[in-house]
Structure formats: C-alpha cells, structure tokens
Amino acid sequence: MFNLILFGPPGSGKGTQSEKLIAKYHLKHLSTGDLLRSEISRKTPLGIEAKMFMDKGNLVPDEVVIGMINDALDQNPNAAGFLFDGFPRTAIQAEELDHLLERKKTCIDVMLALVVSEEELIKRLLKRGETSGRTDDNNEIVIRARIAEYHKKTAVVADHYEKANKVVMVKGEGTVDEIFSRLTAEIDRLMKIDNC
Ligand code: B4P
C-alpha cells in the first residue's frame, strides 16, 4: 500500500493535482472537500451542518470529517493506497488518521506539501469563483478567512509529519504539468522505499 497526503493552503492545487495523480498511480482519492460538497448537494443533515461552516471559510468540526474518512477507508478494503486531499487539516485529524491506518496495519508514506504564495492563492480562488458556483470562492473576505484558518489550525499538521521525517516541500507555482512532474518525481523515488 502507498498512502500519500497532498497538503497545502486553499487553492494550492490539491484538487487539480489529485485528479492527475490518481489516474497515474491508481490510488483511491479521498477529498474531504468533495465528500462535504456531495453531502451539501444531497441536502443531508451532515451537509446542512457543514455548509454553515464552509460558507464562512471555517473548518468543519473534526468529528464530522473523521467519521467520513473512517467510513471511506472501510468501504475500500482492497485499495492499492489512498491519496488524502484536504485531510488531515488539524492536529487532531492527523492523530486520528494515524490511528485509523495503524488499525489497518499501514501508515502515511509521505506528505507532499505544495508551496504557493498568498497572492497567487487569492487570484486562483477568485478566478474559480467566477465559474464554479462555489459560495466559498466568490468572496475575497471568505477566501482570506480560509487562508487565516489554514495558518491557525492546518499549518501545524505539517509539523506532525515532519517529526517522522515524512514531509517533502514541492513548488506549487508554474503550469499544472510542471507541478505534476515535480510531484511524480518525488512519488516515483519514494515508492521504492518502505516508509511504514
Ligand atoms: P477543499 O475542497 O479541500 O478545497 P480548497 O482547499 O479550496 O482547494 P484546493 O487546494 O483543492 O485547490 P484546487 O486544486 O481546487 O476545501 C473546501 C472547504 O471544505 C474548506 O474551506 C473547509 O471548510 C472544508 N473542509 C474540507 N476538508 C476539511 C477537513 N479535513 N476538516 C475541516 N474542514 C474541511 O485549485 C484552486 C484553483 O486553482 C482551481 O480553480 C484550479 O483550476 C486553479 N489552479 C490549480 N493549479 C493551478 C496552477 N498551477 N496555475 C494556475 N491555477 C491553478
């Protein structure tokens, strides 16, 4: 099994690169953002609760996203590995993910962290907001709140994996293909090593 976290601030390209990475490596894509948006579009009780947080640019409570990831892991017992996109986003989520994977006798092999300037993040998200219909993308105040939330609660998640020497920083600016090549170079190197 090869388990990878694609990490970075909102708009750093996690979703964009995940699509290409799962096609190349046949990993199961677990995006908490996508799972939450699917709950919202189906108007489930979980989705109605999550929307209130997401529309303000805040993180959804830990227990909600941890429950979703737990279910998704159970539903995919034969996966060749998982690509976690947008999860974990808090120290508690990171600890809980370690426990969930430990129970499955596996672990996170690597965290690839996309590095993008704040100016570029805001530019990308506002651009996506013009067409995506995502209510968290079309307001600069909400975008800045998401970035602030990232610095306050999410950046520490990298420290958690840094302790285990599992973080690799990757320049997240340039064309989508250039960034993809940087990511695949790291993955190809790391797949030859047993990190768990
Ligand atoms: P997410 O869905 O995870 O989304 P994101 O952080 O906004 O975007 P991402 O980094 O995936 O950017 P993308 O590739 O799409 O989160 C949304 C919300 O859900 C959160 O704010 C939170 O409320 C909630 N949530 C999710 N997970 C949670 C968790 N674990 N705990 C609590 N709450 C949680 O790229 C953005 C744009 O840039 C796109 O338009 C793309 O086309 C463009 N782009 C990408 N690469 C580019 C490049 N190289 N050059 C130019 N543009 C590029």
Can you describe this structure?
The protein is α/β, with parallel strands linked by helices. It is 57% helix and 12% strand. It is built from eight helices and five strands. The protein has helices spanning 14-25, 32-41, 45-54, 62-75, 91-103, 118-132, 140-162, 176-190; strands at residues 4-7, 28-31, 82-85, 110-115, 167-171. A five-stranded parallel sheet has the order 2-3-1-4-5. Helix 2 (32-41) packs across helix 3 (45-54) and helix 4 (62-75) packs parallel to helix 5 (91-103). The radius of gyration is 16 Å and the shape is globular. 32% of the residues are buried. The model has no long low-confidence stretch (mean pLDDT 96).
